[in-house]
Write a structure and sequence with these properties.
With 285 residues, the protein is α/β, with parallel strands linked by helices. It has nine helices and nine strands. The chain has two domains: 172 residues, 3-Layer(aba) Sandwich (Rossmann fold); 99 residues, Pantoate-beta-alanine ligase, C-terminal domain (Pantoate--beta-alanine Ligase, Chain: A,domain 2). It binds adenosine monophosphate.
Length: 285
């Protein structure tokens, strides 16, 4: 695995990886890698000739009172995991490399960026879209891999790729969970063992929604009320939002017959966790 830290050396290496029309898959991450990230790397390995991973804790996607400085950084372990997955290129730039002094160009995907997590984290998706657009320009992958775990990010980036004519395929991979249902997240490291138990209420609430939908409840309001009732079993978990929306526009839907995204965000202690489930349309149920 080659490790690069500058845009110039990354471009040079990507040119080599592309030689002979080989395809390149990109997996953008913020490091602190877990099995969810590795599922994206494996999908890229299966779908492309060469795999590039980026590790960059992107300052512009953190709010002033968020966890940028204490976000977990596990460089040695990350490198070892990516070596094992036979990753070809690891791009790990500094903040100064990505945002040189005077950088003042940002990507704003209006509408979707202000919904769900975007409403709770103003400016977050402006930072995400900007850094991902930069990675797309630097690496020019044929395919880029993202997790369904971050459903709003998927909606924002799908729209960005469409609107800005990026010539690549965006591949979305399913959520990887621990056996007890907790969606894997780098932020799970913040949880005490007691909080981790409480955090299971997110996936439990979504399972309730999934079961309700499978049994034929199409009324989104009823599904949300049920999910919130499940959440109230853990009074120390503070729900930020619990919504049933159109997966592309992220606008609320009242009826899930055509398919929908059920998404939840909640604070467990000071840790903000997110989870979601895609509800199939009744035709595909
Ligand atoms: P992050 O390092 O949190 O920015 O995540 C990097 C990529 O991994 C994003 O596309 C995430 O959606 C994806 N990801 C994070 N957690 C999971 C998970 N539990 N299952 C699948 N993909 C995930």
């Amino acid at each position: 695995m080659k490790i690069t830290t500058t845009v110039a050396e990354t471009r040079a290496l990507v040119r080599e990886l592309r030689a002979g029309k080989r395809t390149v898959g990109l997996v953008p991450t913020m490091g602190a890698l877990h099995a969810g990230h590795l599922s994206l790397v494996r999908a890229a390995r299966a779908g492309c000739d060469a795999v590039a991973v980026s590790i960059f804790v992107n300052p512009t996607q953190f709010g002033p009172n968020e966890d940028f400085t204490r976000y977990p950084r596990t460089w040695e372990a990350d490198c070892a995991l990516l070596e094992q997955e036979h990753v070809d290129l690891l791009f790990a730039p500094s903040a100064a490399e990505v945002y040189p002094v005077g950088a003042s160009t940002f990507i704003e995907v209006a509408g979707v960026s202000d919904r769900l997590d975007g409403a709770s984290r103003p400016g977050h998706f402006r930072g995400v879209a900007t850094v991902v657009a930069k990675l797309f320009h630097i690496i020019a992958p044929n395919k880029a891999y993202f997790g369904q775990k971050d459903a709003v990010q998927v909606a924002v980036l799908r729209k960005m790729v469409r609107n800005l004519n990026f010539d690549l395929e965006l591949v979305v991979c399913p959520i990887v969970r621990d056996p007890d249902g907790l969606a894997l997240s780098s932020r799970n490291r913040y949880l005490t063992s007691e909080e981790r138990k409480r955090a299971l209420v997110l996936s439990r609430a979504l399972r309730w929604v999934e079961d309700g939908a499978a049994r034929g409840t199409m009324d989104a309001g009823q599904l949300i009320r049920g999910a919130l009732a499940v959440c109230s079993e853990e009074p120390d978990v503070r729900v930020d939002y619990c919504k049933v929306v159109d997966p592309d526009t992220l606008e609320d839907v009242s009826d899930i017959s055509a398919g929908a995204l059920a998404a939840i965000a909640a604070f467990v202690g000071t840790t903000r966790l997110i989870d979601n489930v895609l509800l199939p349309s009744s035709a595909n149920r």
